[in-house]
């Protein structure tokens, strides 16, 4: 019966893969392949996004495959992300919001405490922008042009991961991620004056279809009977990702009526170069009581190459996340609030976006909690408040508030042998 639950969960993963997206809402997502998604579930988000070295029996590990060993029970989780942003530039101000399914993930233990594997889907990057810019017409100072840019979609990933226990202190793991789905962009340009001149509209669709690979490792040792020290590392290999691009140029009248259509690309195969990424984590844990940790992540986005082999907008990134969690008394019978897991954290992110000679920075404060329900399952909540960018030098600043909602179903009877009278 419990194996049927695992098969049923896999069917759900495959059936509703399409809607999984992060919904970032950001003009900066027009650069590169969009906003990069940290593959952290709501419980990790509540701790600032840490999870390279720390884990928990009741919550799935998606940030380091080696830690899947600790998930020794069958587990299924699904989540929703909601974002509300205030986007400002000079005196201009706009409020935008969006939300959608953010992740689906299941863990199947093969040998309890020794080997586990995971199947899941979540975003890799997200594109969601719509803005207008003024463009000078070279050679004609009397001409006025407005350009309207729109982008949607992003790259999703289907991830298979496995973790293996080498000995009491050392864990290793690996993952294979299949990138799929599309980024859609459209640029409409209009000459306000002189009238009667039509500028082509560019419509582009870039679809990814390729694999990415990574691995992780964790070393941990007991400092005392209660306190455990853990050190972890993760690495994602650089890859030339196969993509297909379609692009048309469509000339329209001022009323939007097409006059002519010219095909630039028609499912033309090419590649996008995704650079290597690596990270390190350090944590202290009192099992089923509290955890405190720090993660540092890097990715060499200055090596990124787009479909045309160019890169003049992305630079190397660094993400520092610090956070922790505490459960007052996981075995409490009379006080429900003592069984709740409370979380806190913050992160500082040097994003890959490089605009007008300046790298765009981001800062977030995180908190969250997990509400236990029957059979070791939980409702998980994470919250993040922060900002990105600056108002100086005509830049765009984003103030945001995000909610990460998830439900986790754990079944500790996976290894119980049924008995018959």
């Amino acid at each position: 019966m419990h194996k049927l639950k695992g098969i049923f969960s896999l069917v759900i993963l495959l059936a509703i893969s399409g809607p999984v997206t992060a919904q970032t809402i950001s003009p900066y997502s027009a650069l590169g392949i969009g906003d990069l998604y940290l593959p952290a579930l709501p419980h990790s988000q509540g701790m600032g996004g840490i999870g390279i070295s720390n884990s928990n029996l009741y919550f799935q590990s998606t940030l380091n495959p080696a830690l899947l060993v600790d998930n020794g029970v069958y587990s299924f989780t699904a989540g929703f992300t909601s974002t509300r942003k205030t986007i400002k530039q000079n005196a201009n101000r706009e409020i935008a919001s969006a939300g959608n399914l953010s992740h689906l993930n299941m863990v199947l233990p093969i040998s309890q405490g020794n080997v586990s594997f995971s199947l899941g889907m979540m975003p890799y990057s997200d594109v969601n922008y719509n803005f207008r810019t003024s463009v000078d017409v070279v050679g004609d100072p009397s001409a006025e042009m407005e350009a309207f840019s729109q982008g949607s979609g992003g790259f999703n990933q289907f991830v298979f991961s496995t973790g293996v226990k080498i000995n009491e202190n050392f864990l290793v793991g690996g993952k294979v991620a299949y990138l799929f789905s599309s980024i859609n962009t459209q640029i409409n340009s209009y000459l306000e004056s002189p009238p009667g001149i039509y500028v082509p509209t560019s419509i582009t669709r870039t679809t990814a279809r390729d694999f990415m690979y990574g691995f992780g490792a964790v070393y941990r040792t007991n400092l005392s009977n209660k306190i455990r020290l853990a050190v972890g590392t993760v690495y994602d290999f650089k890859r030339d990702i196969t993509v297909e691009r379609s692009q048309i140029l469509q000339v329209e009248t001022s009323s939007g009526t097409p006059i002519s259509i010219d095909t630039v690309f028609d499912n033309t195969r090419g590649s996008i170069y995704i650079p290597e990424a690596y990270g390190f984590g350090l944590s202290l844990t009192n099992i089923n009581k509290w955890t405190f940790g720090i993660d540092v992540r890097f990715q060499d986005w200055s090596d990124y190459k787009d479909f045309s082999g160019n890169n003049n907008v992305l630079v190397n990134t660094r993400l520092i996340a610090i956070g922790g969690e505490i459960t007052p008394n996981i075995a409490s019978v009379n006080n429900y609030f003592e069984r709740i897991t409370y979380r806190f954290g913050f992160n500082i992110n040097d994003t890959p976006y490089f605009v007008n000679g300046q790298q765009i920075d981001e800062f977030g404060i995180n908190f969250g909690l997990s509400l236990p329900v029957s059979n070791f399952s939980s409702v998980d909540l994470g919250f993040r408040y922060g900002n990105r960018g600056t108002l100086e030098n005509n830049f765009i600043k984003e103030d945001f508030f995000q909610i990460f909602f998830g439900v986790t179903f754990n079944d500790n009877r996976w290894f119980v042998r049924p008995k018959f009278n």
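Residues 44 and 151 are 29 Å apart (CA to CA). DSSP finds two helices and 22 strands in the chain.
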